[in-house]
Amino acid sequence: MSIAAAELGYTVGAISQQMQALQHEAGAALFIKDGRKLLLSDAGHLLLKHAFGILEAEERTDQALGDLSDGISSTVRVGVFGSSALMCVSPAITELAREDPYIRVVLQEIDPEAAVEAVASGLVDLALCLEYSGLPVSGGPSLTQQSLVTEPLLVVAPVGFPQQGVVHTESGFRLGELGEEREWLLPPERSLFGRAARRVVADTTSGFVKIHVVTDTALALGLSSAGHGLTIATQSMLDFNRSPIQTLFASSLERTMVLLAKSASLQRPSASRVHQALVSAGRNFSEGARNLGAL
User: Fold this and answer.
1) Cβ distance 119 to 125 under 8 Å?
2) Which residues is 117 bridged to in the sheet?
């Protein structure tokens, strides 16, 4: 013990107290007296075998906690869906990789209508979802909601649809007799998009219309492009679609992309920074869309 005390700069008594405390914590005898020397017991040898790993783990933990205070190696999970990934998430990740490379963003594809539950349950830290005119998102008091991009719902048709099939009235555009002869390709009525789309149809037609239920937006646009009916979309949907399609008119209803987060989660600097990048990306997208519309 005297050699250990000299190397560590402690008194022999302090070393003895530390050894006794270590044995008490271990709940087993760690040392065997051999005259004036001490030998390791079986328990002592076992502890020694794992001691270096314990010390290294403690050092790594201290380093990680220190790094975290500096914003290093933080992971933020983001729930995304189709067009949101291209509109906001991709530019946000590009910005973060350039300006805050210590933040690791992990994407989880989720149904927009499951976003509230995904954030509330902790499956993701942030999530993008959708709301429509008259059909708002309700996240509850523990969640924050930030509107990112708002777009009108468009009535679209195959290229070559006769313009005389559209009638301009004081309250907006409607489909004339030629338009009302066409069938519709709409999402399921149980979904928010499906309910909003049917409101557009009700506002722009009169009487009975035949509806084909199509869940996938790309499929609905493809079928419409092939001449199998009219459908509802937004400009961002059309921008990410390769099918040739014709926009007839914009309805009075709108779709808004909303960013959800737990208020408590935003106390993490990393989550707050990702939130900021997504808001910035949404603002840039909206400004770009307005500029294109003004040309």
Assistant:
1) yes
2) none
Q: Which CATH number fits domain 74-132+261-294: 3.30.70.920, 2.30.110.10, 3.40.190.10, 3.60.15.10?
A: 3.40.190.10
CA angle in degrees (0–180, nearest 5) for 130-290-98: 75
The predicted-structure confidence for 143-174, as pLDDT tens digits, reads as follows: 999 999 999 999 998 888 877 667 766 656 76
How many Å apart are CA 281 and CA 213, to the nearest integer?
33
> Smallest Cα–Cα separation from 74: which of 10, 11, 125?
125
Determine the CATH number of domain 151-256: 3.40.190.10
Pairing of strands 211-213, 184-186: parallel
- Say if residues 263 and 140 touch (Cβ distance below 8 Å): no
The letter for the amino acid at 144 is: T
If you search the block for the tokens 């990048």, which residue do you land on? 277
Structure tokens belonging to residue 203: 């506002």
CA dist., res. 149 & res. 130, Å (int): 10
- pLDDT tens for residues 85-112? 788 999 999 999 999 988 999 999 999 9
In three-state secondary structure terms, 252 is strand
